[in-house]
């Protein structure tokens, strides 16, 4: 006996037929369970990652992600190189640094269009600070040695003729430990992300001397657009897992789209309570300061890679611009598709 096709059944069958090509277009995930390494997840630098995780955007793409939080980006990179992470949420410039060491890693979705890093001097140990020369021989707190906070400090100091070896870098993380380090006088200056830097600035603990938390400040420090937080992975991993990387890019761009219209109360409700560092008002003041630095659509800006290469080469002898193939350090292929999907 032939089954009866009711109007409801016909509608469901027709809907399935229309949806099928879309599902096929994305393809089956090559790897659904993923290990992601990040250095300082509570920082605004990685807010899009937290938003996409908290709102279930990874799950809705069929991904089961385990996010391991390290003290700084250099440690997260180590996890990737040691094969304990599949993907890193980290600073784009690591892709250039690693290519200089003959390691092929590539960015595939951008979360930040400015580094959101500020350098401030302690009002306690350097009350009479006059210029960068005063930092020679001093202790400077960074999230972790070798991380993007360290890179920005190196860049700013190099412009005053101060080498990395002329100061002592101290890893202080991006949370409560960083606040304690400056307030207790353990360090003389701090190069770090928000909300930490805004909290220290508003309480009078530091005097900001260099700032990349805004697009204007970034232009002044770097001379162009400076790509920041992103997802990067081994180039082979991206080549072998295109559908998985597309799903990751989709989740992040979905989060970026949400952030474009999110209000302060939406942010407070979504991030873990511990991220507020005990002060909601200051956390929101920090968010308002860095908001424009958050990416809009996951795409790498055309001049961004050149700006990053120029900055790195100015203080990192191992990075020779003529030996770096920037086209291999990033791809907009996945972000472009995600942008179209979410109309970001």
Automatic annotation (TrEMBL):
The coiled-coil regions, if any, are none
The terms describing its cellular component in GO are: periplasmic space
Organism the protein comes from = Ramlibacter ginsenosidimutans
Which locations, inside or outside the cell, does it occupy? Answer: Periplasm
GO terms under biological process? alkanesulfonate transmembrane transport
**UniProt keyword annotation of Iron present:** no
Listed name of the protein? ABC transporter substrate-binding protein
Which keywords has UniProt assigned to this entry? Signal
- Locate the SsuA/THI5-like domain: which residues? 45-259
Primary subcellular site in the record, as a coarse category: periplasm
Protein family: Belongs to the bacterial solute-binding protein SsuA/TauA family.
Q: Which InterPro entries match?
A: SsuA/THI5
């Amino acid at each position: 006996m032939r089954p009866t096709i009711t109007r409801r059944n016909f509608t469901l069958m027709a809907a399935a037929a229309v949806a099928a090509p879309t599902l096929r277009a994305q393809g089956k995930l090559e790897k659904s369970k993923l290990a992601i390494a990040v250095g300082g997840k509570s920082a605004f630098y990685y807010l899009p990652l937290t938003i996409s995780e908290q709102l279930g955007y990874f799950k809705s793409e069929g991904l089961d992600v385990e996010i391991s939080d390290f003290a700084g980006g250099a440690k997260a990179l180590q996890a990737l190189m040691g094969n304990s992470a599949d993907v890193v949420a980290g600073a784009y410039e690591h892709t250039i640094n690693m290519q200089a060491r003959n390691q092929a890693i590539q960015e595939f979705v951008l979360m930040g269009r400015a580094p959101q890093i500020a350098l401030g001097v302690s009002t306690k140990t350097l009350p009479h600070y006059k210029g960068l020369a005063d930092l020679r021989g001093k202790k400077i707190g960074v999230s972790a040695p070798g991380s993007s906070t360290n890179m920005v400090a190196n860049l700013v100091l190099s412009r005053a003729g101060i080498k990395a070896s002329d100061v002592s870098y101290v890893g202080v993380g991006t949370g409560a430990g960083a606040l304690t380090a400056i307030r207790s006088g353990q360090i003389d200056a701090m190069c770090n992300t928000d909300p930490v830097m805004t909290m220290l600035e508003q309480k009078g603990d530091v005097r900001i001397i260099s700032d990349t938390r805004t697009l204007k400040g970034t232009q002044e420090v770097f001379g162009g657009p400076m790509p920041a937080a992103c997802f990067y992975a081994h180039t082979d991993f991206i080549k072998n897992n295109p559908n998985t990387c597309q799903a990751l890019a989709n989740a992040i761009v979905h989060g970026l789209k949400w952030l474009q219209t999110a209000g302060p109360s939406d942010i407070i409700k979504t991030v873990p309570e511990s991220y507020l560092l005990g002060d909601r008002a200051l956390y929101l003041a920090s968010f308002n300061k860095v908001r424009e630095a958050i990416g809009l659509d996951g795409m790498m800006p055309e001049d961004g890679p050149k700006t990053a290469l120029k900055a790195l080469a100015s203080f990192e002898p191992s990075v020779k611009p003529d030996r770096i193939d920037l086209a291999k350090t990033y791809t907009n292929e996945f972000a472009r598709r995600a942008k179209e999907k979410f109309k970001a």
